[in-house]
Amino acid sequence: MKVSASFLSSKNIPKDLLALDKTDVDFIHVDIMDGKFVPNKTMPFSEMKNIYKYTSKRLEVHLMVSDPIDYIKKYAELNTECIIIHVEIDDPTKSLELIKKYSIKAGLAIKPNTPISDLVPYLPYIDEILVMSVEPGEGGQSFIEKSEDRINEVRDLLNEYNIKALINVDGGINDTTVKKCYNCDIVTSGSFVVCSNDFQEKISSLR
Questions:
Q1: Residue 165 pLDDT class (50, 70, 90 cuts)
Q2: With respect to CATH, is domain 2-206 assigned 3.20.20.70?
Q3: Hey, which of 17, 30, 37, 93 would disulfide with 54, CB 3.0 to 4.6 Å?
């Protein structure tokens, strides 16, 4: 299982990115919010683009935004492994196709109360499914227990359609809840890692 670390709950982003760069974490998870799709809003790209100064890790960019097109064009310029949009937005296909044009992996996130079946039309376009185990938009939330069943449902869906996409789970991930994510390929953890005194120890405990 791979581990992606989110700095959404970080109190000192440059310092924490430098510390994460010294660990064996696989990806840095970059949460982007527009204040529309979710209530909160993150720093503008003019500041976010400086991530490269503090880490050489590949980025997973999670776009919690209503209209991803302009964001995709900007974040495709960074050291980005995967750009993830939400299935709940209007016309996800347009955004997924644009991501693929940049030869970047395309991901699709799904909120806790969205039917898993809503993913079906977009399966041919995606390399990763991000199962939200909290409501998106705020760090430090508790893992929603039904998420374990939803992860397994996504795995069954991928097997049914013979799709090789990875499953990532994001929200409330710690050394206890990770045990409910046995059917995942990647786990994304934020406050459990960046609010600790030993980033590597927490990352290792997730593995």
A1: very high
A2: yes
A3: 17
Amino acid type, 168: N
Query: Given pLDDT bands bounded at 50, 70 and 90, which one contains residue 39?
Result: confident
* 31 is known as an active-site residue: yes
Kindly name the residue from 31, 118, 127, 149 that is annotated as catalytic: 31
**pTM for this prediction:** 0.94
Question: Looking at this protein, which amino acid is placed at residue 3?
Answer: V
Task: Pick the catalytic residue from 16, 26, 127, 170.
Answer: 170
Question: Is 170 annotated in the active site?
Answer: yes
Distances (CA, A) of 17 to 7, 12, 94: 8, 9, 32
Q: What is the rounded distance in angstroms from the CA atom of residue 157 to the CA atom of residue 114? A: 15
Provide the angle, in degrees to the nearest 10, between the axes of the packed helices 199-206 and 13-21.
60
Listed range (19-33, 131-145, 150-164) with the worst mean pLDDT: 131-145
- The count of other CB atoms within 10 Å of the CB of residue 16 is 21
Average pLDDT, the chain: 95
Question: Exposed, middle or buried, 11 (CB in 10 Å: 0-12/13-18/19+)?
Answer: exposed
Pairing relationship of beta strands 128-132 and 186-189 according to DSSP bridges: unpaired
Distance CA 147, CA 28 (A): 22
CA distance 119 to 107: 11
Domain ranges of the chain: 2-206
